[in-house]
């Protein structure tokens, strides 16, 4: 293997994506590459992904590496994490087989992950999933006791300017298949015009589809400045003790915001906000709902999500995976079925209408006259 290109490097893949260009070499430090990160990398089409961490550690069967390989993007795992520190942003990297050169100087080596290696690691991870499931359940139950204020009403929800009462609310998280699901419900968005809430990078997801967030909520670590500036209202997620790392960024941009101190995830408090402000209906896109989702996010349990969904109940419709309902291709038989269905009422009205009877009678008389006339001529 021989690859040469410019290196783009970051310890956070979601930050690197913003700077990465096609044919760059992506240098990351991402243990257990998740599906969302992999799909984001595939969109940027790098020549190579160099990872200073284990792309599949064996903790759970993460799909990221398989997605990259299927897209024709090779993954190299570094033999030594110190190599990551040596690689500089925008330096010229050459990879020859398992050796790495920066500006023609040898800096270390790595292992190219083949499909065979990836499949072997996934098989090992699947055998380990039962152990992880036990840990996950224990953590969820333990933290559920600590985070019960999420549902018993002792949570201080900020006053907001956007009115949600008796309205439909669409909450968008940049999670698995969010683009496909957003595309599938565009008709709903156009017709119903719900209040649009972006959760961190979910705000940029809305912008991608031409929608401006009514509310942007989160810790502000993965949303663009552009989205922050055009969102109608910003709510910064703070820790239960009031500490809010995302607030500094908002202040630097000279923007106003509200603070929402709460345990749990930003998508949890987005659901709570909509519920507490008496939204009539809540639709969620891209949210994290199962163990794999949470393991991919680096969380050991899902206590807050479990509690919040318990509280929100029937008001919530999760649109995750809705795109799968629309995969069947159009068939010609559908066209004829629709055409026949539309003609039935027209034909029924025509047959039983007195006016139609008169027209048919006139046509009958005209036809007889023509036939008689032809008989004379013959």
UniProtKB/TrEMBL annotation:
Keyword Lipid biosynthesis on entry: no
Query: Mind telling me which residue stretches traverse the membrane in this protein?
Result: 332-353
Report the Gene3D superfamilies cross-referenced here.
Thiamin pyrophosphokinase, catalytic domain
This entry's Gene Ontology molecular function terms read: ATP binding; kinase activity; thiamine diphosphokinase activity
Domain SteA-like C-terminal, first and last residues per copy: 320-370
Q: Which GO terms describe its biological process?
A: thiamine diphosphate biosynthetic process
Annotated InterPro entries = Put_SteA-like, SteA-like_C, TPK_catalytic_sf
The record's keywords, sorted A to Z, are:
ATP-binding, Kinase, Membrane, Nucleotide-binding, Transferase, Transmembrane, Transmembrane helix
- According to the record, the signal peptide region is none
Task: Work out whether the entry's keyword set contains Transmembrane helix.
Answer: yes
Matching Pfam families: SteA-like_C
Native organism is: Caminicella sporogenes DSM 14501
Record-given protein name: Uncharacterized membrane-anchored protein
Domain of life the protein comes from: Bacteria
């Amino acid at each position: 293997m021989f690859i040469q290109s410019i290196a783009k490097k970051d310890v956070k893949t979601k930050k690197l994506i913003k700077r990465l260009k096609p044919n760059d070499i992506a240098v990351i430090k991402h243990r257990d590459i998740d599906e969302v990160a992999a799909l984001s990398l595939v969109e940027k089409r790098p020549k190579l992904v160099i990872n200073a961490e284990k792309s599949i550690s064996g903790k759970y069967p993460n799909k990221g590496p398989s997605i990259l390989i299927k897209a024709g993007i090779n993954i190299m795992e570094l033999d030594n994490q110190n190599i990551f520190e040596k690689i500089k942003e925008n330096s010229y990297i050459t990879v020859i087989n398992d050796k790495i050169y920066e500006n023609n100087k040898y800096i270390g080596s790595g292992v190219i992950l083949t499909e065979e290696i990836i499949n072997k690691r996934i098989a090992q991870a699947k055998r380990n999933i039962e152990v992880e499931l036990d840990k996950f359940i224990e953590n969820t139950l333990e933290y559920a006791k600590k985070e019960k204020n999420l549902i018993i009403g002792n949570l201080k929800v900020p006053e907001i300017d956007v009115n949600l009462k008796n309205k439909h609310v669409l909450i968008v998280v940049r999670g698995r298949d969010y683009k496909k699901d957003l595309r599938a419900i565009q008709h709903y968005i156009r017709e119903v015009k719900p209040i649009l809430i972006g959760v961190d990078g979910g705000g940029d997801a809305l912008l991608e589809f031409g929608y401006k967030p009514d509310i942007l909520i989160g810790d502000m670590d993965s949303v663009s400045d552009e989205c922050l500036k055009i969102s109608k209202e910003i709510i910064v997620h703070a820790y239960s003790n009031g500490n809010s790392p995302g607030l500094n960024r908002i202040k630097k941009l000279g923007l106003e915001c509200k603070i929402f101190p709460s345990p749990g995830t930003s998508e949890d408090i987005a659901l709570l906000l909509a519920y507490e402000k008496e939204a009539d209906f809540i639709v969620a896109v891209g949210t994290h709902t199962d163990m794999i989702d949470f393991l991919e996010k680096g969380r050991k349990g899902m206590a807050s999500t479990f509690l919040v969904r318990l509280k929100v109940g029937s008001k919530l419709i999760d649109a995750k995976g809705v795109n799968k309902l629309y995969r069947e291709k159009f068939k010609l038989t559908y066209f004829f079925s629709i055409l026949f269905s539309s003609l039935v009422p027209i034909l029924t009205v025509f047959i039983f209408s007195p006016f139609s009877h008169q027209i048919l009678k006139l046509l009958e008389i005209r036809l007889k006259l023509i036939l008689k006339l032809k008989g004379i001529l013959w």
